[in-house]
Amino acid sequence: MKKIRILGIETSCDETSVSVVEKDNRGKIWILSNIVRSQIDVHKDFGGVVPELASRAHSEIIDTVTKKAIKQAGIDFNQLDAIAATGGPGLLGGLIVGTVFAKTMASVLKIPFIAINHLEGHALSVQLESEINFPYLLLLVSGGHTEFTIIKKFKKYKRIGTTIDDALGEAFDKTARLLNLGYPGGPEIEKYAKNGNPNKFEFPKPIINENNCDFSFSGLKSSIAQTVSGQRLTKKFKSDISASFQKTIVDILEAKVKRAIQNFKTYSKSKKNIHVVVAGGVAANKYIRKSLIDIESRENCHFLFPSMKLCTDNGAMIAYAGLMRYEAKLFNKLNFKPKPRWPLDEKAIFMKGKR
Ligand code: KG4
Ligand code: ZN
Known about the structure:
The protein is of the alpha/beta class. It has twelve helices and ten strands. The chain has a five-stranded mixed β-sheet with strand order 3-2-1-4-5, with helices on both faces. A five-stranded mixed β-sheet has the order 8-7-6-9-10. Strand 7 (146-153) and strand 8 form a beta hairpin.
């Protein structure tokens, strides 16, 4: 078997990341490098990602990050078999920087260019670390997406539930902003929650009792805004809000995971212990990880979490999806246009603001 080496470029949001993933001649997969440059310092004063600043920051460092990824992988540019880059969904400016850079490299090196759906990267990234068979259930919880998708097999994805308003990472970031915590909000909320009382405040759990696998988080944010309004933001208050918020999120996730598992079992006609992969930035949250693991035996399922570095945005997941596509000979033409909106299940209807 010939070695295959794919370069993966991720620039869809606020991380510039480039990685080299190799499949060796025995079929084993290796992450040879995975350089991640976060733009936290660029955006932190604004409390969120500023698209124009993100594009500028990507274009300033994409070449040096790429050189570093190649150097760390211990290879030469001409040992690459294909260049993969996130083609969407995401912020258009960043997607343009990544795909134009990838196409240029591919045409100079005379190797294929492969455009990757960022969500497919998250969906498959677990395979870089764990042996897992299809089908499995994916719970994707990131800054831009929150959905349940059945990963039937490579390229066959069926979404069974999604947020109808904010993404979960967005809810963390907005709550953090209300509490004057830093950006990105998720890790800050997690830190404060450790010293807070999770039962101090009761927040709403929108659509938790509806018989579907959908989520809604915008009402939760409004309720927190009312609770915070006019209060002194002491450390104790911020900790109690953070802990109560996280507990509310876990209650919502548990209820919806239960439904999604039922749905998955109906689809797969199996009562076996099923695998649920939790991916995306919010999957880095240790309290959420632990709470989900605690319900494994009750729900007859097994949760798999990519390691921290593979949960948040990274080039390795793009290189790996690129490898799968390379082997299936699914290449893109150089006139590929980035897609700011690009659902993983292309048949799924757009739900945001539908109610
Ligand atoms: O997957 P990701 O890196 O980028 C997107 O594709 O959106 O996810 C970023 C999101 C942000 O909203 C961030 O606040 C959240 O993931 N996040 C966390 C944690 N670490 C990152 N949320 C909760 N707890 C964390 N430890
Ligand atoms: Zn992501």
